[in-house]
Amino acid sequence: MSRIAALMPSRELWRTPLLSGTTSLWILCLVLIAGCDHPQPPFRVGTNIWIGYESLYLAESLDAFKGSPIRLVTMPNTTQVMSALRAGMLEAAATTLDEAISMAAHLKDLRVVLVFDVSHGADVIVSTPNITTLAQLRGRRIGVESGAVGAILLNAGLEAAGLTPADVQIKHLTVDEHAQAFLSQQVDAVVTFEPVRSQLLDQGANLLFDSSKIPGRIVDVLITTERIAHNHPETLRRLINGHFQALIHLKQNPEQARQSMTTRQRLPMRELEQAFQGIELPDLATNHHLLQGEPAPLLVQTTYLVKLMQNQHMLDQPVDMQNCFTANWLPQP
């Protein structure tokens, strides 16, 4: 694996019917966490490596969770995160909105309680140097993840050029294959995201399209269930409060805050700063706006996503997201 591939985070849910050996190992670790001698049962929050989730780890470093049962669990990818949540080994998880939709098919009382970030340029279509326009993708090989995030961006980019998926050769690549496939010329373009965006552009790739052209469509959220929320109300509120405390610290002390993130993200400061330029971090007022109302604005986007996922055969059963969004656990604005 190349250095770039080793740096890549995973945001997509790789749909696997059975727990893999790696997933089983992670669940064993979570069982051990649950068995530790805590004054309260641990409130385990699963994440993978993605800049939008760094607020939780920043909050932890600021002692926002000190004395609480909150335990942040970094997992290699969202396959493990979602499998652990379904197995009852996590109380909450950081996911993309399409992953939340997939989980809602299995967790009927799933709740979206926080919006971490909205992609605004971090997700991109990049091409080899000889391809300079979207129209030139006709007949070309495009690497893309099998989840909805990749499909959203690819469909939007192709539509902007008057193309359809039938006009290109789509190669489904797992996230750890993006850079290697691109740099070894196995594909002519790839749908990817930060920090790989910056890595490939530094090596001469052309930026053809990015998520700033489709604002509001690619979103990362915190999910739990209604049962867990009502069994752990104060802990859930403290977790969410910590996120907003971290955002304030990031705004007031950006260099200090980002310095603490470079090790976890395995990125130099310059590239980390570039990565943050590609996402929006909704504040408390914006979170209230997105998660409440009739309908909640985020529900409107979710309806679009559900239809897309159904058309792409990404859902194996109907999903009703009507009651999944709540601002009840947010601090008052």
UniProtKB/TrEMBL annotation:
Could you tell me which Pfam families the record lists for this protein? NMT1_2
Ranges that cross the membrane = none
Q: Does the keyword RNA-binding apply?
A: no
Location(s) in or outside the cell: Periplasm
UniProt-listed SUPFAM superfamilies: Periplasmic binding protein-like II
Q: Does the keyword Transit peptide apply?
A: no
Into which family does the record put it? Answer: Belongs to the bacterial solute-binding protein SsuA/TauA family.
Q: Which Gene3D superfamilies match?
A: Periplasmic binding protein-like II (3.40.190.10)
The taxonomic lineage of its organism, from the top, reads: Bacteria, Pseudomonadati, Pseudomonadota, Magnetococcia, Magnetococcales
Supply the name of the protein: ABC-type nitrate/sulfonate/bicarbonate transport system protein
Q: What Gene Ontology terms describe where this protein resides (cellular component)? A: periplasmic space
Q: Which organism is it from?
A: Magnetococcus marinus (strain ATCC BAA-1437 / JCM 17883 / MC-1)
Indicate where this protein is primarily found: periplasm
Arranged from A to Z, the UniProt key words for this protein are: Signal
